Amino acid sequence: MTSAQPPAPGRELSNPPTDGISNLRFSNHSDHLLVSSWDKTVRLYDASADSLRGEFMHGGPVLDCCFHDDSSGFSASADNTVRRIVFSHGKEDILGRHDAPVRCIEYSYAAGQVITGSWDKTLKCWDPRGASGQERTLVGTYPQPERVYSLSLVGNRLVVATAGRQVNVYDLRNMSQPEQRRESSLKYQTRCVRCYPNGTGYALSSVEGRVAMEFFDLSEASQAKKYAFKCHRKSEAGRDIVYPVNAIAFHPVYGTFATGGCDGFVNVWDGNNKKRLYQYSKYPTSIAALSFSRDGRLLAVASSYTFEEGEKP
Amino acid sequence: MSTQRIDPLVQVETTCRALLNELQIIWEEVGETDADRDEMLLELERECVEVYRRKVDQANHSKAHIRQTIADSEAELAAICSAMGERPVHIRQSDQNIGSLKEELRKMLSQVEEMKKRKEERRNHFIDVLDQIEMIINEINGSTESVSSETVVDETDLSLMRLEELHRQLHELLKEKSNRLKQVQDHLNTLNSLCSVMGMDFKLTATEVHPSLGDSEGSRSISNNTLEQLGTEINKLREVKIQRMERLQDLATTMLELWNLMDTPIEEQQKFQNVTCNVAASEHEITEPNTLSDDFINYVEEEVSRLEDLKSSKMKEIILKKRAELKEISTKTHLIPDTQLEDAIEAIDSGVIDAATILEQIELQIAKVKEEAFSRKEILEKVEKWLAACEEESWLEEYNRDENRYNAGRGTHLTLKRAEKARSLVNKLPGRVEALTSKIMAWEEERGTEFLYDGTPVLSMLEDYANLREEKEQERRRLRDQKRLQGQLIAEQEVLYGAKQSPPKPQSAKKGSKQCTGVPSTKKVALGGPMLQAHKLDSVNSPRISQTRSNKKTEFMLQNDAIPASPAFKRGQDIADAPFRKHPSNGINTNEIESPLKTIPTNDPSNNTMTPLKTISSVDEENRKPKAMHSTASVQMQTDITPPPTLQTSLVEETHEEMEQSFEEKRLALMHSDKQIPSMIQV
């Protein structure tokens, strides 16, 4: 993992996880970094100080994690559990369960709820303030057309990307049915979805080296603005080799965004001017996750093999 | 002496006696009386005495004369001596005078002679000196009278002192003369150098001042006048020299400037090295012959004027170049060039307007136009894009009217591709037009002028276009409504009378093309999701997005030249392994499918949202011959309520060819299979 300040090279954090990284997040309150990994741990780092502040074991590979505040966070695990982790006490307890591995987890400050998406084709909302135990904490279950692959929140909007290239846009205040049901503009499997910090739309990446920029507003004017672009591709002998774009992260201040692909590159883009601003030097392997710190000063890059080509030594 | 005297005397006496004797004889003969004899003898005696007396008087006279002469001579001598300022050498030495008067006289005379000679000499000297003096004075005074032949000498003063004095005077005069001569020579030298520097004839000039000056050999006038004139002439020439020098220096500076301006090569500059090296010299530093001659100055002047001509012609060139530049920039940004400047440029030749000011003006104009061009750039690009899109739109309309467009033939696939692109362009057009309009308005507000494209305001062009479109839209809507009504009628009829064949669709020529989807709104229902996306993403319209459900089994079609990096692509597609160049057949396929999608108006949200069920049913009815995959697709359509299958089943189905899996799912599956069954149950 490295934090990056362009154009200075990044700084690799010490004590990385021992297996692939599934996701990493910066806290909204400090430069703490929460990292979930296939080695069944969730680790808490202080990115600026480069120190490991906590390590929490799970029952299975942890597929996602997020902060609640600087003292606690949540994790989504392949053992179907949703856990809350209290960093200071080094404790974690199970908030609830799905019927299949929990793929994504987000905490909504607006709604005060934890939202999880799972391969059991449901979206569940949890209230973390209640006592643990599914009966108390589960707020609602919302079926999805397919297995949930990615989630993103902005304000009161929730964007859910599932298998089969479906996309559901929810208003958190009314989860009974999606505000919009869409299909991904890209022709290939959705890999990641992220909402713009200004809440006007979302970016959606696929396994075919493409990113689509979409807008919530369904008017002609807004829809005319949407576009898609190719990225994370390599040109060889007249053909393009395309790589899945695994991660997207938006800069909280500038609105520019970074994408990370299986080609091992991180590109930073200006969506309004449709230009690539720069590209960091190649990482040793695929980019698994990206996250900007709350002031946008730091960019955390997780590089670990994401199994795009199956089993590999 | 006496002896000598005696002799003659004795002789005489004897003679007398003889005579007397004779006389006596005679008398005797004659017989003269004694009285007579005595008388005669007395007479004789008396006569003799007379004679003696006379002789004695004579002798006295002569003696007195001699004495007188001596005295005179003395006096003369004294006078001479006094005139000559010398003491007489010979004072009267009467006491020493033993000798006779005649001796004395002789002496005296000789002395006088001597003195006279000396006086004469002295006098000559004086004359000489005086002559010389006079000559010199004459020379100095510039009088042309020759030395008078009679120099007046003051006879009274012929002393040596005076001679000395005169000699001194002469000496001084000689000095003066030599001074003047030197002066004259100096002046002449100066004159000579001035003349040589200025290429004037020295002899001529010198003789102009005074004829004698031109002659290098003869004596030269040294008169005051001459000197004065020489002085003035020199001053005059010097002034002329200064004038010329200044002129030359001006020319030299001008030349230097021009060289600088025009980057004259060194060889050319060398020719005038001698001029430019003197550009800052002062008057007396310029001494080379002919450097200030008229000819030379003219020569330099000619060169300068040649250079100036060159400069103005170059300037003209530059102006013309700039004018061309200005035109180019103007035409590039579709601005109309300023005619005022054009006229000014034409006027250069007539000399009315100065080239330099025109150059300035042009530069200003260029800067202005550049600035304007820059500010217009963005909008201009958009305008051009819009114009291109309009062209494509009209081409597309043409194309759509063409009945034979699906005939396979040379280049058909290219036109199909072009139609694809054109459609997407056309769909983006309204948004673009709006964006462009708002941009132009902002620009116009900012600049305070209209945005002109080759003279016409773009906003009005856009307006016209928008109106045109609006009309076309309305036309299309009308047609669509008509069709819908027709369709409804038919549906009702079908309900009454049983299934009927699908009504002919006026717009799509081929029935086959309707196989897969047909209906505008729910195209996605029948097709696998990606099939709809066969065209480029950019043209996606909101109404289509608003309600679609894709099936689980998704088909991926390679629409572009991309080769997937990961095996994920290999699953779930039949065409994956097809080399991308097989595009045309696929393309045609997709495009065939596509065209009804596109040709049927897509901008009709009303159709989509209002009657979804109805359209679905018409889809089913219309699509009598769905492809196999699509029949399954329609079955798989989901509603909100059906609970989804569990993950277990999906994991088990992993070997199913058409099962989509994310990398994480795959990895987890691998992990679990490695760990054997218990791990699955674990979940």
Automatic annotation (TrEMBL), chain A:
<dbReference type="GO" id="GO:0051301">
    <property type="term" value="P:cell division"/>
</dbReference>
<dbReference type="GO" id="GO:0000776">
    <property type="term" value="C:kinetochore"/>
</dbReference>
<dbReference type="InterPro" id="IPR020472">
    <property type="entry name" value="WD40_PAC1"/>
</dbReference>
<dbReference type="GO" id="GO:0005819">
    <property type="term" value="C:spindle"/>
</dbReference>
<keyword id="KW-0137">Centromere</keyword>
<keyword id="KW-0539">Nucleus</keyword>
<dbReference type="InterPro" id="IPR015943">
    <property type="entry name" value="WD40/YVTN_repeat-like_dom_sf"/>
</dbReference>
<keyword id="KW-0677">Repeat</keyword>
<dbReference type="GO" id="GO:0051321">
    <property type="term" value="P:meiotic cell cycle"/>
</dbReference>
<dbReference type="InterPro" id="IPR036322">
    <property type="entry name" value="WD40_repeat_dom_sf"/>
</dbReference>
<keyword id="KW-0158">Chromosome</keyword>
<feature type="repeat" description="WD">
    <location>
        <begin position="95"/>
        <end position="127"/>
    </location>
</feature>
<keyword id="KW-0853">WD repeat</keyword>
<keyword id="KW-0131">Cell cycle</keyword>
<dbReference type="GO" id="GO:0007059">
    <property type="term" value="P:chromosome segregation"/>
</dbReference>
<keyword id="KW-0498">Mitosis</keyword>
<feature type="region of interest" description="Disordered">
    <location>
        <begin position="1"/>
        <end position="20"/>
    </location>
</feature>
<keyword id="KW-0159">Chromosome partition</keyword>
<dbReference type="Pfam" id="PF00400">
    <property type="entry name" value="WD40"/>
</dbReference>
<dbReference type="GO" id="GO:0009524">
    <property type="term" value="C:phragmoplast"/>
</dbReference>
<dbReference type="InterPro" id="IPR001680">
    <property type="entry name" value="WD40_rpt"/>
</dbReference>
<protein>
    <recommendedName>
        <fullName>Anaphase-promoting complex subunit 4 WD40 domain-containing protein</fullName>
    </recommendedName>
</protein>
<keyword id="KW-0132">Cell division</keyword>
<feature type="repeat" description="WD">
    <location>
        <begin position="245"/>
        <end position="279"/>
    </location>
</feature>
<keyword id="KW-0995">Kinetochore</keyword>
<comment type="similarity">
    <text>Belongs to the WD repeat BUB3 family.</text>
</comment>
<dbReference type="GO" id="GO:0005634">
    <property type="term" value="C:nucleus"/>
</dbReference>
<keyword id="KW-0469">Meiosis</keyword>
